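Sequence only, no structure available. Ideas?
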Amino acid sequence: MQYASKAKVRQVAAGVITPSTSTYQTLRVDAGARATMDDEVAVEEPLQIRLAGEDVAVLMRTPGHDDELAAGYVYSEGIIQGRRDIEEIAPCVDDNLDQRNVVNILPADRSLLRPLDWGRLSESYSSCGICGKTSIRQVMLTVPAIRSDLRIDHTVLTSLGEKLRSAQSAFHLTGGLHAAALFDAEGNLQVLREDIGRHNAVDKVIGYALLNGDLPLSNRIMAVTSRASFEIVQKAANAGVPVLAVISAPSSLAVDLARECGMTLVAFLRPGRFNIYSRQDRIQARA
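Reply:
I predicted one. Tokens follow.
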């Protein structure tokens, strides 16, 4: 794994690779006929994220790219401000813990250790952008304004759904994983990550960009195989994403936040059609 920064990042699994799918014997019933078969199921396991040994969060995730998930989470939650704040990402050396499922981020500056400000030591089922926050309005005020000159042809957007589906290797096996991906202005796939939690998939992509020195993502399109929730828009906005496209519907808070921060929010992405809820000027119709 090659990253642009010289800072030290180790493979989190410490040589132990946890598969993203698991095989179970099942009984299929189809029109009354019964047959025993093997079925691939998406793996779900907890990931404990620590900052210099201090607990930050426990996320229920699909194993894989855990360093990116941890980095993306602490960045999108505002715990760190950039790549320079990470000195090392490594397994947590603790004989009482399953080291596959614990990631320890060593910060370059120990002043980042503010556990009382994190406010979320309870277990979450996915990476959640507002869990533990006392005021939604407070969250909205901290999201930066999107600064981007990106303009894309509408045909680029309509091609993204099929590109997402064709690149989802684990989804094809299980049918149970979300994906988030980054595309350039021409619709070329840059990176795709899968996870049982849609927020986790987004954080993995953001973590990838963070560790490779690609933030802010001011010239990229982010596409996600889910609805557009407030948390998804929040995370994308914190990474500087100017265009967010989702397969399903948006929520009212997601639309409000996208309009407030100047993000182009596209939903109901289908072959040949989609809805634009904010900053329509970035999507150009072919003459």
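The first strand starts at residue 8 and ends at 9.
Hope that gets you unstuck.
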